[in-house]
Amino acid sequence: MLASAASRNPSESRLKALDSVILGGLFNHSGPLNPTLLVVGLMLAPDRTFMTQTIHLQATVPDHLGGLRLDQAVAQLFPEHSRSRLQGWIKNGELLVDGKQLRAREKLLGGELVEVQVELPQEERWLPEAIDLDIVYEDEHILILNKPTGLVVHPGAGHHNGTLLNALLHHCPGIGSVPRAGIVHRLDKETTGLMVVAKTLEAQTDLVAQLQERAMGREYEAVAIGVMTGGGCVDEPMARHSKQRQKMAVSPMGKEAITHYRVLKKFRGHTHIRLKLETGRTHQIRVHMAHISYPLVGDPQYGGRMRLPKGISLELRETLSGFRRQALHAKRLELYHPVTEELMSWEVPLPADMLALLEELALDLKDMDPS
Known about the structure:
Elements: E1 3-7, H1 12-15, E2 36-43, E3 52-60, H2 70-77, H3 83-91, E4 95-97, E5 113-119, E6 135-138, E7 142-147, H4 164-171, E8 192-198, H5 201-212, E9 217-225, E10 232-235, E11 238-240, E12 248-250, E13 258-266, E14 270-277, H6 284-291, H7 314-322, E15 328-336, E16 342-347, H8 352-368
Parallel strand pairs: 8-15
Antiparallel strand pairs: 1-16, 2-3, 3-5, 4-5, 6-7, 7-8, 9-14, 9-15, 10-13, 11-12, 13-14, 15-16
Helix pairs in contact: 7-8
């Protein structure tokens, strides 16, 4: 299930990542930039798993960063914080250069003193819950799990508990000091399969960067309605649906979204496919497959009315009618370990309901052509 290969060739920004992270509020940074980072004013209530933090960061811009834009320089000075967060601090005047607010595009000379003092927003009360997790791999930095169907990843409207986040807080209490309990990407509630969780801020920053740089490999298997002639690529931007805000849609004004797919097996009226993501938009596979008129079996949002091929067996008819979730499984995950930089990969089998669906599809195909 696990394979490792040669170490990665990381970007410059990740080569200067935190050398150590001490959970509980104090971040020590050593290395070529050697800034001083202080985190003060931490408060943690017994029933609160995330902290209200007043963060004070301070660093002198080294000469070799002279000539860079402010936003580019601070991304290297404080790599444990995302670029979007740093840009927000610049815009809000919470990141100062020699005591003055600058614009993100202004260039630095070198030698300036950069300071940040900001109070992070207080998080909701998320409590640990004893929920069983199917853990595929775990070390002190990352956790790989096989998510079951029906498990919501993150608390939200209508799902304040019983989520993967609650389970992670119980399994690994220290993860409460990492934003979003270390979750760096999501799977839909009814989608099964592999996810990676960061157990430290350093690991989370690195994994998010891998997603942004498309260095993390994610492959899925699905059962689509209709018989495909072959594989292909869907390169269509996506955005929130203009009227149904709980849905996504292909939109020329949306963000780039690219999905590759290939045929594994054709049936009477369905296709077993393997998919690979270049981007990771919400509902991307489901929206793209529906867009090319091959929606996923059981998809309640994008599948449309159930379409049953003529002449199918009674058993397959019952299986399809009873399949109440999108037939989608995150089968393979590949990433560079955020600390060792080894290329690692995992693969898990299809869940029982998808195996049963494929078995019925195969039996129906055999009945259609006994030879």
